[in-house]
Amino acid sequence: MDSRQRRAGPPPLLHLDGVGKTYVMGEVAVEVLRNVSVEIETAEILAILGPSGSGKSTLLNLIGGLDKPTTGSVWYRDQDLSRLSSRELTFYRRDTVGFVFQFYNLVPNLTARENVLVSTEISRHPLDVDESLTLVGLTDRADHFPSQMSGGEQQRVAIARALAKNPELLLCDEPTGALDFETGKRVLRLLVEVRQKLSKTVLIITHNSAIAQVADRVIRLRSGEIVETTENAQPVAPEEIVW
Amino acid sequence: MSVLDRKLLRDLRRSRGLLTAITSIMAVGAACYVALGFAYRNLSSAKDRYYADCRMADFSIEVKKVPLAELAAIERLPGVVEVRPRIQFFATVDIERVAEPLNGIVLSLPDRREPTINDVLLSREGYFTDTRDNEVIVNEKFARHHGLAPGHWIHLILNNRRQELFIVGTAVSSEFTYLVGPGSIMPDPEHLGVFYLKHSYAEDVFDFDGACNQVLGRLAPNIRDRPEETMRRAELLLDSFGVLTTVPLDQQPSNRFLSNEISGLRAFGVIDPLIFLSVAALVLNVLMTRLAEQQRVIVGTLKALGYRDRQIFGHFLKFGLAVGVLSGITGGVLGYWISFAMNGLYRKFFEFPTLANRFYLDIFVEGLLVSLACSLIGSVHGARAVLRLEPAEAMRPKPPAQGGAIWIERFKRFWQSLSFAGRMTLRNLVRHRFRTAAGVFAAAMGAGMAVNALMLVEATSFLVDFQFYEVQRSDIDLTFKDERSAAALTEARQLPGVDRAEPVLNVGCTFVNGSHTYKSGITGMAADARLTVPRDLARRPLRIPDVGLVMSRKLAQILHLERGEFVEVRPTKGLREARRVPVAEITDSYVGLTVYADIDYLSRLVHEELAVSGVQLAIDPRRETVSSLNRELKRLPALQSVSSRADTVANVQETLIKNQRVFIGLLCLFAGVIFFGSVLNSSLVGLAEREREVSTLRVLGYSEWQVGNLFLRESLLVNTVGTLAGMPLGYLLNWGITVAYDTDLFRIPVVDPQQSCVATFVLGTVFALLAHAFVQRAIFRMDWLEAMKTRE
User: Is B331 within 8 Å of B31 (Cβ atoms)?
Assistant: First the structure.
C-alpha cells in the first residue's frame, strides 16, 4: 500500500514516494538520491538544505519534471510524473512549474522584457509581462540586456520570467548563490512576497542554513537521504537573517 | 515576431564573422549554379532560335562540281526534306587599310530573298538588289572589325581575278556561330570573313553555270539523330562528281564548338556548385554543432520553461536556413552578375544575332532552393544535438572535454620530439576529429579546384607553345586555290623577305581500317622540312619517313591503329585508287588530326607528278620587308588563304588566354574563398570553445601572438594536409576534363602538375593566413579576464 492511499482528505500538491536516483557514468553508478519521501503543500515555502553533492539539485530536477527517478515515484496532485512521456512532462513544466536558477540562465541577447516574453509566449494563462516586471521592481530596466544589469537584477528578471507563466510551483535552485548578501536578501523578500501575494508554493534549494530560516519547513539532505525535517513555527523575515 | 525569432536575429548578427565565412562559400556555390545555369539557358535558347531562324542545314556535302539537275535525286531520298545547291570558295580579301591579305569564305545565296537553308539574318541594311550583279553581304563581325558598312566597296580575289564588290548589307548566319577557318580552333574575326554573293554572280565568276560544289540539306525530324544511312546514299549518288567531305550537323565545326560549350556548362553547372555546397554544408555543420554546445544552458532553460523539442529544434534550424536564404540570394545576384560577364565573353567567341543575358526566375529560385537544401543538411545534425540534450543535463556545466592520450602518443619517439605547442595542436586536432575532417575536406576541395584551374592555364600555354613554336614553325602559310607545279615553290622563294620556303601538298582522303573509317587528309612535306616538325609527347622531333605515314595519336586511336600497322588510304584526288600504307610513326598534336608523309611519296601515292598545294615561309621579321611581302601577296591571284603565325598567336593571346586568365583568376578566388571560409570558421569556433583555455594561457603570461600561434599551427596543419590531399583530386579532375574535351577538333594536354601544385599550395596558405589575421584580431579583442569569470 503506498503512503498516498493512507492519507485522508485532498492529496497534497506534491508527493515524493521512496524516490531514488542513480546516475550511470561510464562504468560507475552513482546513487545520488536514496528513498526520499516527502509531501509538499500548496502555498508553502519549503527549503531543501544540504551541502554540495547531497542531491538537492537532483531532487529539484525530479520535482520540476526535468528528470525521472530511478526508483519510487513523484506525484503532482494525482499525476505520477515518473510515468509521464517527455511530451507530457514538457506540458507539466510549461503550465505548472517556474524555475529560478542560481546563475539566472537568462538569454543574453534578449532584453529583460523579452526574457519574460520567452515564458509568456508559451503559457496558457500568463501574467502581464509588465505586471511581472513591476512585481520584481524592474519596470525601469525592462529594455536592458542581461549584460547591462547587476546579478540581483538579473535574478529578479529570472523570477519575473518564472512568475509570468503563473505557475503553481516556483522552484529556486540556490537563488541567492551568486549574489551578495544585501541583494540576496532582497531576492528572498521577493520570494516570500510571491507566496504571500500570489499564494504560490515556493521551493528553495540552498546550502546556506541561514536562508532556510525564511521557510515554513526545512528538509535536510545528506548523501542523498533526508536526515531531518524541521517545521519553522515562526519563519524569520528575510531582512532579519544574517549569513 | 516571436521572441525566439528576435533572439535568432541577434544570434545571427552576433555571429556575423562566422556567417560571412560560411555564407561566402555557399554563396559562391549558388552563384556558380545560377551563373552557369543562366549561361546555359542563354546559349541553348539563342542557339535553338538562331538555328530555326536560319533554317540550319542538317548536312552538307562538298563535291568538286555537280550539275544542279543531279540534286533532284538527293531530294527524293527518304528523310530528306529539302536541299539547296551552293557555291563555296575560299578567297583572299584586300582591304586597303590593312597591310596583309585577309581570308574569306565566299558563299552563294539566292538572288532574291526567299526562305533558304543556311540563310542569313541581316544586321545592317538589306539583301541583294537588282541594281548590280557584284553585290556582297559581309558577316557583321568582320565588317565591324574593319569599319566596313553598306555602301562601301571591297576587293576579293575570285577565281584568280581581282573583283570589286559593293556591300549591300551585313549579316550573321547560324552556320558560322563559331567562325573558324579550316584546321583552326579559335575564331579570328579580324582575319577571316564570310562573303555572300548572288548565286547567279557566283555561277558567273567561278564558271559554275548550272552547277554547284556544295549541297546543303534538311532532314525530317525523325531521322535527324541518325542521318548516317541518308548520308551514305547521298554520297553514293554524288560519287562520280568527286565527294570531298560529308558533314552531318553534329560534325559541323561551328555547331560542335557551340554544343561542346553548352554541354560543358551543363556538366560544370552541377560539379562546381556541388563542390562549394558540400564544403559549405560541412562548415555549417561545424558551426551549428558549436552553437548547440554554446547555447546548451539556454536550451536547457527553454526546455525547463516548457518549450517543446520541436520548437527549439525549429529555432536552431532557422539559424541554418537563414544562412541558406542569405547565401541563395547573395549567390543568385552574384551569379546573375557573373552571367553578364560570361555572356560578354561568349559574344566575343560566338556570333549570334542577339545574345541577351536574361533573368531566369526559375533558375534563380532553384539556386535559392539548392542553398536552402544545403543549409538544411548542414544544420540538421547540429540542431539534432539540441534535441538530445536532457534539460537537467543541459543546465549542468559541460563535463570537461575528453582527456587522455591520443593514438599518436603511442609513437613515443615522435611524440617526445614535439614541443608543448605541437602536442597541444595534435591533441586538439585528433579530439575534434569531425571538425578536423571538415577542414581537410574543404582544403582538399579548394586545392582540387585550384590545381585543375591552374593546370588548364598551363595546358593552354603549353598547347600554344607546342603547336605554334615547336610543330608549326613557319611564319606564314600560303594555300593555293589549285595545286601548282614545283615552280610555285621557286616563285615563293623569290618573294621579298623570304628566308626559307617549303612545299606542302594536302591530299584529302578517307582512311579505312576494317570497320573504322575517317575522312581527313595527308599533308605532304619535304624530307628536310624544318618549318613543320611533327613531334611526340616528349617533344622529340620525328623524322618524316621515305615510305609510310606519320599519324596523329588521336586519329590512330579512332582508327584503332598502332605504329607499324597498315591502313587503307582512299584519296579524293588523282586516280582515287585505294592503297595500303604503313603507319610509320605516331605523332602528338593537339589541334586537328594531322597525318604527315613525304611529299614525293604522297605524290606517288596519288600517281601524280610533284605538285604543291601550299607553301610555308620563314621570313625576315623586319617591318619593311614584311610590308613589301604583304603587298606582293595581295597581288597573287592563285592564293586561297594566307595565315600568319604572329596573327594567330596574337589572336589566341588576345581572346583565349586573356579571357581564360580572368575566369581562372575567378576560380582561384573562389577556391581561396573555400580556404578562407573554412579556416576562419573552424578557428573562430575553436576560439569560442576554448575561451577558458585561452584566458588561462593569458593569465600564465602568454602573449596574444603566442596564443594566436597555437591556432595558426592547427589551421596550417589542417590546411596543408587538405591541400596535399586535394592535389591528386585536382589532377584527376583535370584528367577528366581532358578526356571530356578529347575530340578530333582539339585536345587539351595533361601537363606536369608540379607548378600548379606549388602555386595552389601558396594560394591555400595565403588565404589561410588571411583568415588567421581575423582570428588573431579576435584574440586581441578577447576579454579574457571576463572569460575567466564566466561559468562554462
Answer: yes
